[in-house]
Write a structure and sequence with these properties.
Layout (H helix, E strand, L loop, with lengths): L8 E11 L6 H9 L6 E7 L6 H9 L5 E5 L6 H11 L2 E6 L5 E2 L3 H12 L3 E9 L5 E3 L7 E3 H4 L11 E3 H4 L11 H13 L1 E13 L9 H15 L4 H20 L1
Parallel strand pairs: 1-2, 1-4, 2-3, 6-10
Antiparallel strand pairs: 4-9, 5-10, 6-7, 6-9, 8-10
Helix pairs in contact: 8-9
Length: 258
Amino acid sequence: MNEGEQEYQQGLVSIITPVYKSERYIEQTIRSVQAQTYREWELLLVDDCSPDHSRELIERLAAKDSRIRYRRLEKNSGAAVARNTAIAMARGQYLAFLDSDDLWEPEKLSRQLQFMAEKGCAFSYSRIRMTDSEGNTIKDNISVPQSISYHGLLRRTVIATSTVMLDREQTGDFRMPLRRGGQDYATWLQLLRRTGRAYGINESLTAYRNSGGSLSSNKLDSIRQVYQIQTHDEHISRPRAVLNTLCFCMYAFKKHYL
C-alpha cells in the first residue's frame, strides 16, 4: 500500500513504546496509560530483546487488558527498529510516543486531542515535569513555545518524545530513520518538513524521568547526534550545523539547569 492510502481507525490513539531493560518502571508507565480519561487507545510495546523481566510484567498486564499489544523482536536492533515495528502495527488515526520510564498525567490524551482539534494541527507536543529516578519532581517550569518550525527546531530542544502526538491523516505514513541515537529528533525534523509547524501546549502533561538509564541521558552523545543529523540527514553545511548545535546546547543548558 502506498503512502497516503492507509485507512486508520478514527479517534484511536496508538501509543508507541520501545522496551529495553524496563522492568523497574514499565508497570508504572503502563498504569499511567490505563489511567487516561480518554479510553480509545492501544498500547504497542515492542521488546528489543530485553534481558530482564520486562516481558513477564507486560504479558501479565496484557492478559487483563486487550488494548495492550506486545511484540518481541528476534534480535536486539535499537529503539528506531522497535518504534518502527510499533508504528507498522498501529491502527490508530493518532500516534503518541511514550518511553518506557516516563509517565502521563490522566488528562494527557484528552487534553492533547482537544488541543489538536481546536488548532486543526497534525503535530503537537507539551511541556514536561522533570523527575528523578524515584519520581520526585526536579523541575516543573520548563515552558514550551506555542509553535515551532523546522528552522526553529534546528536550534532549540523543545520537543520531548513522550509528549508528541501526530495525526496520521495529515502527516501521512512515515518511519523513523534507522540510527541508534537521535532518531526521534531526526523524525521531528522530517515531519516538520511536511507539516510546516508543530504546536505546543504549555501544560505539564508528561513526567519525564531523568535517570541514568534514559535513552537521552548522555548529553555529550546527544550533542554529537544533533550535529550528525543536521549534516548527514538534513544536508546542512558544517559551519551552519556548528552554529545550530551551539544554539541547541545553550537552550538545553538553560532548560535543564536554570
